[in-house]
């Protein structure tokens, strides 16, 4: 068994995450900057008030004047010092960012954490976030003179050269089938794949791919719509310029996705 290290030290993903968390903890949100501005004015004012109070007690207070002067000056500084104002924001940011990291939430800066309380819309990446990230072929619909096993065999043969998650789902569905060799394999970005196998020209991808290659899909339009309405991704197989099969691929929802979205709805957060 061979292992290859793609990154070491500060270039690893863990190091980048730690660096991001530390950067967020050291940044200051808008309210923190406001607290600093107030403290910059408030501290000199407090010192002046303490000195004035000490002077009054020194010249007009009872004996011993020195003791009362020190007590009064110290008391004013302790009571009026804006230490809480200066420490509250950084401490809450450090605690909040650290707590979020424990739940797998990385905050880029403190201002983002502050604005999170006013969020009314959340946009999710579906694959791997709301779903398990493991697509599965849930149905194979065939048309013309191609049976389900043959359609799955040709589709899996094409997907051998692809690294797309849908390709893995089709290959898993094919299992131990004997797959034919594919020649002239091509990946068509955003559309699908193409190639030749057993003397047939093959296309596998979305409806846009077949339309671009002038393969008619009107006869299977209803089936495409039906599968899409059920949350499946329709993958179409065309052989020699004719649509012969539809593979419905669906990524199962995570067990906690529905409950999480319901909690967001209860908080009037649109998703």
UniProtKB/TrEMBL annotation:
SUPFAM superfamilies: Calcium ATPase, transmembrane domain M (SSF81665), HAD-like (SSF56784), Metal cation-transporting ATPase, ATP-binding domain N (SSF81660)
Keyword Plastid in annotation: no
Superkingdom in the source lineage: Bacteria
EC number annotated for this UniProt entry: 3.6.3.-, 3.6.3.4
Keyword annotations: Cell membrane, Hydrolase, Ion transport, Magnesium, Membrane, Phosphoprotein, Translocase, Transmembrane, Transmembrane helix, Transport
Membrane topology note: Multi-pass membrane protein
Transmembrane as UniProt keyword: yes
A Pfam family the protein falls into: Hydrolase
Enzyme's top EC category: hydrolase
Gene3D superfamilies, per database record: Calcium-transporting ATPase, cytoplasmic domain N (3.40.1110.10), Calcium-transporting ATPase, transmembrane domain (1.20.1110.10)
GO terms (BP aspect): copper ion homeostasis
Single annotated GO MF: ATP binding
One Gene Ontology cellular component annotation held by this UniProt entry: plasma membrane
Subcellular location per the Swiss-Prot or TrEMBL entry: Cell membrane; Endomembrane system
InterPro entries linked to this entry: ATPase_P-typ_cyto_dom_N, ATPase_P-typ_P_site, ATPase_P-typ_TM_dom_sf, HAD-like_sf, P_typ_ATPase
Residue stretches spanning the membrane: 38-60, 66-89
UniProt-recorded name of the protein: Copper-transporting P-type ATPase
Name of the gene encoding the protein in the UniProt record: copA_4
